[in-house]
Automatic annotation (TrEMBL):
One of its GO terms (molecular function) is diaminopimelate decarboxylase activity. InterPro entries: Ala_racemase/Decarboxylase_C, DAP_deCOOHase_LysA, De-COase2_C, De-COase2_CS, De-COase2_N, De-COase2_pyr-phos_BS, Orn/DAP/Arg_de-COase, PLP-binding_barrel. Residues 72-416 form the Orn/DAP/Arg decarboxylase 2 C-terminal domain. This is Diaminopimelate decarboxylase. The lineage of its organism: Bacteria, Pseudomonadati, Pseudomonadota, Gammaproteobacteria, Moraxellales. Pyridoxal 5'-phosphate binds at G282, E316, P317, G318, R319, Y418. It holds the Pfam family Orn_DAP_Arg_deC. The keyword Iron does not apply. The gene is lysA.
């Protein structure tokens, strides 16, 4: 049986990393990457070791595994609220609204605790708005982003009384005006401006470059605002931008803000006065050993310009609110060492967590949160942690130095954002359970799907 001795195993075998491994989060060797679980969790807000056992808040992970089984997402309520408060406190010097980006994690319990804390929400579909309302959120604190809002979406959002549509094209503006006229209810809008700023992030999650589908080009925005001002049922109230996700530096945010401020001045010159500026989301998190700017540093960098501007400011954080509040627990089913590579096949897969497959995202794996009593392997080796799906791209982590046995439960950290929210049923796999922890309490907040659930809405062809 394994116990929590991975670090000793690796340092025994490889004296060159002996000292480094004791303090550093990562040690890269020729064989693979070693992640020191204790150094990693020292940077995670509510995940920590007590007597070599892993806890989230005051609940031991082994208790959660025994109760809810694997694969299972677990979220810390405290961690989510702490980040929300960090945003609120850091921007206290300006009037602000934190509109949590629902797409990052749209579980009702997550939305509910944020709604209770006073958060607003950034949504991209009618479905997300319905979730916010079902969780007790207020429509009057909702901003609606997205490039493809339908007539149905617009009608529903307008009827519910959302705060603002972040408009991404002229054709959307025309449609919103038309729907608003039919309902005889003027629509509050911002234009989402694409400032053509390099967010220096993965190309799939960069949204503020002129080649990206998002927003209205910065050099066209003034003309589109002037056009919007002529429309009978459009009420111009703000300006918006969102340049990408997992930004670790503040410079791209500042570059985008400068361009937005320049536009606000030009709009004032044309007699168009705005009531708020929305700077989107995008602040990055530490998955392993990245060093993104903190929320406090982010605020300190933006505040002088925002105070001078004198407009209320909206933010739409998604990842930074929830990523490090969540883990994905998964069990090692099969160990398959081969001549070239060692594969650990676990019970979670790309259908549960697609970020590694889609963006080659590196997420940390904590071994042996519950030791298995299955087939052990000899000490620390490099493993690819893979799912059982029939895709070569089905991996959760590659070349990780770990000591594994079948039955071991592993925790993938940073899984609170874009984890369950992006999951699917590929290969007819039921989606995982979701659990929330608060203090010494825990609760199932998302039931594991059954296989019958997967085809409950389907029917056999009936020949006539
Ligand atoms: C319009 C908009 N707002 C907010 C977000 C949230 O971004 P993040 O999760 O990086 O904070 C996104 C996603 O990137 C988005 O597209
Ligand atoms: N899904 C992405 C972020 C997308 C942001 C949405 N605009 C990720 O996991 O990193």
């Amino acid at each position: 049986m394994n116990n929590f001795k991975t670090q000793e195993n690796i340092t025994d075998q490889n004296p060159t990393v002996q000292k480094a491994a004791s303090q550093k989060i990562t040690t890269q060797t020729e064989q693979g990457l070693y992640i020191n679980p204790e150094a990693l969790t020292a940077h995670l807000p509510t995940l920590q070791y007590r007597d070599e056992a892993l806890y989230m808040e005051s609940v031991s992970i082994s208790e959660l595994v025994e109760r809810y089984d694997t694969p299972c997402y677990v979220y810390s309520q405290q961690a989510i609220l702490d980040v929300y408060r960090a945003y609120s406190d850091s921007f206290a010097a300006v009037k602000h609204q934190i509109c949590y980006a629902v797409k990052a994690n749209s579980n009702l319990a997550v939305l509910g605790i944020l709604a209770q804390a006073g958060a607003g929400f950034d949504i991209v579909s009618r479905g997300e708005l319905m979730r916010v309302l079902a969780a007790g959120g207020q429509a009057s604190r909702v901003v609606f982003s997205g490039v493809g809002k339908t007539r149905d979406d617009i009608e529903f959002a307008l009827t519910q009384g959302i705060s603002c549509f972040n408009v991404e094209s002229i054709s959307e503006l025309t449609l919103i005006n038309m729907v608003a006229k039919q309902l005889d209810k003027p629509a509050p809008i911002s234009l989402r401006v694409n400032p053509d700023v390099d967010a220096k992030t993965h190309p799939y999650i960069s949204t503020g470059l002129k080649d990206n589908k998002f927003g209205i080009a910065h050099d066209k925005a003034l003309a589109v605002y002037e056009h919007a001002a002529t429309l009978s049922h459009i009420n111009i109230i703000g300006i918006d931008c969102h340049i990408g996700s997992q930004l670790t530096e503040v410079a791209p945010f500042i570059a985008a803000l400068d361009k937005i401020i320049e536009l606000i001045h030009s709009l004032r010159d044309k007699g168009i006065e705005l009531r708020h500026v929305d700077l989107g989301g995008g602040l990055g998190v530490r998955y392993i050993d990245e060093t993104p700017v903190t929320i406090e540093e982010f605020a300190q960098a933006l505040l002088p310009k925002l105070i001078e501007l004198g407009l209320p400011v909206f933010f739409e954080p998604g990842r930074s609110m929830v990523a490090n509040a969540g883990i994905l627990l998964t069990r090692v089913d099969v160990l398959k060492p081969t001549e070239h590579k060692n594969f650990a096949i676990v019970d979670a897969a790309m259908n549960d967590l697609i970020r590694p497959a889609l963006y080659q995202a590196e997420m940390a794996v904590i071994p042996e949160v519950l030791p298995g009593d299955g087939i052990d392997t000899e000490g620390t080796q490099a493993w690819d942690i893979v799912g059982a799906i029939c895709e070569t791209g089905d991996f959760l982590a590659k070349d990780r130095l770990l000591s594994l046995a079948t039955g071991d439960v592993l925790a993938i950290t940073g899984a609170g954002a874009y984890g369950f929210a992006m999951s699917s049923n590929y290969n007819s796999r039921p989606r995982a359970a979701e659990v929330m922890v608060a203090g010494n309490q825990h609760q199932l907040i998302g039931k594991r799907e059954t296989i019958e659930d997967l085809y409950a809405g389907e029917s056999l062809w009936q020949a006539k």
